[in-house]
Give the backbone structure.
Amino acid sequence: MLDGGDSGGVSALEGLRVVEMTEALAGPFCAMTLGDLGADVIKIERPGTGDQSRRWGPPFVDGESAYYLSVNRNKRSFELDVKEPADLALLHRLLERADVFLTNNPRLESLERVRLDPGTARGLNPRLVYVAISGYGHTGPKAGRSGYDLIAQGAAGLMALTGEPGGGPIRFPTPMADFSAGIYSAIGALAALYARDRPGGSGEGQFLDVALLDSQVTWLANLAGSFFATGRRPPKMGNQHPTITPYQPLRARDQMMIVAVGTQRLWRRFCEVLGVAGTLADDPRFATNEQRNEHRAELVPLLEAELARRDAEAWIEELSAAGIPAGPINFPDQTLADEQLHARRMIVELEHPLLGIVKTLANPISMSATAPTYRRHPPRLGEHNEEIRAELAS
């Protein structure tokens, strides 16, 4: 198995144990993130079926879901039926030795019935950090409702603003509510562990309630700030930025490209590269960012007329050399072939006992001393049953 880190065998979270009883994406992504940083992650799965994402596809790779493979490396799979007393006892023994317990059941009362609720779990191990990921959280009038990523995208207000003016709502092509909840869960777990273990810390774990809806709403950020300031609903603007111009895709001779002119200094430099420093740069309609926003419909065709003289790649090279942010609009296959990603080691190859080499995307955190490592392939269902049972028996 190939190690994508440069940590010399030392991992930031080495010695930390995470018990993950989640499925789909938010919880598995959180657990994988902690696993990349060195934690020992034990993935609890239903006997015979496991994580629902194992069946999501196509595509499948020799029967394994590509979706599942993408977010489950650095884990050990342990099949347990928590409705069976003997299996529940094994899970309780794991929790007694664990640092973090991840769940994604929307109803805590259902966990109470199988004695996996926060009170019971932390009664077994007061140092345990219990992370509960759900669609709407465990407080409020919608607590307990089921919620997938798509529900959170719609409820959070972002789908309604995505797409061109006059068009219908558009879902983001990857499950960003799941990803954001997973990342916030990992951050929260690490913060709770630090609060437990720091000098003068409590020595005890705590309960974390992370909702997909809350995690997605935080991404409204500047849009919420605009609403708080004006009381007006932000408009749907397609690829245009609500407060910066030009900061959008523009058409060059052969294809679209992106230009991000975020300051007045960059605006003048952009005009110099385009050869319009004496015209557009000094045009009173475009003199300031506020005026460029106001006259955007007039400015964009003028810029595209200049960009039409050359291909996008040539403009991107020249603009980048001048310090002006510019880039291509890639399809995923083009992105994954980009020399920059390969130089940054953003594609990891893992040796799988049945599938051969499995490629996954690396953890994006580059650390000088305790880099992420890639020690385990995404596990087959129940692959580590005997290994973990032996550990519990010792």
Observations:
- The chain has two domains: 17-219+339-393, 256-328.
